[in-house]
Design goal:
Elements: E1 6-10, E2 29-33, E3 42-46, E4 53-57, E5 63-70, E6 73-81, H1 88-99, E7 105-111, H2 118-121, H3 134-142, H4 148-152
Parallel strand pairs: 6-7
Antiparallel strand pairs: 1-3, 2-3, 4-5, 5-6
Length: 153
């Protein structure tokens, strides 16, 4: 019964050829990045009053970015599904995409498959594969992105 303007889903496991399964007009306009296999996958739904537009996406079902218009303000929404294993190349590819765009407001969300601050987010420090690469922190710093959960709570 919640009325959401934007919905993002990761790890949707739908093949590119089956993209029509994602279309749901009640959720809004559908933007997706899928593969030819039934794995990975990411989708963003955005209500039409936000005038959503695709900005970029990868071909691996790992990230997608849309522009929305809220009043007179344009914002970039980037949904990601980072790999379980090494993440440096993934975030480097995302960084290359972000260099090409300029937005005053940017939201980066999704499944990072890692933690920003292990001392706060983990009870053990043994999950080396959960370690996030420096390039992600470079992205966060360059675009002045903050963990809104941490900022608020």
């Amino acid at each position: 019964k919640q009325k959401c303007d934007i919905v993002c889903l990761q790890e949707i496991h739908i093949k590119q050829e089956d993209y029509k399964l994602l279309i749901n007009k009640k959720l809004g306009q559908c933007f997706y990045s899928l593969t030819d296999k039934k794995k990975k996958g990411i989708v963003i739904y955005a209500k039409s009053n936000l005038e959503p537009k695709l900005v970029f996406k990868d071909k691996e079902g790992r990230y997608i970015a849309i522009e929305i218009l809220d009043g007179n303000e344009k914002s970039l929404i980037i949904a990601i599904y980072a790999p379980n294993g090494p993440k440096t190349n993934f975030f480097a590819d995302l960084q290359k995409e972000l260099v090409e765009v300029t937005y005053q407001n940017m939201i980066l969300l999704g499944d990072f498959n890692g933690v920003i601050n292990p001392s706060l987010d983990r009870t053990t420090k043994t999950d080396e594969h959960r370690k996030l690469p420096k390039v992600l922190f470079d992205i966060l710093q360059h675009h002045q992105l903050k963990d809104t959960w941490r900022e608020k709570y």
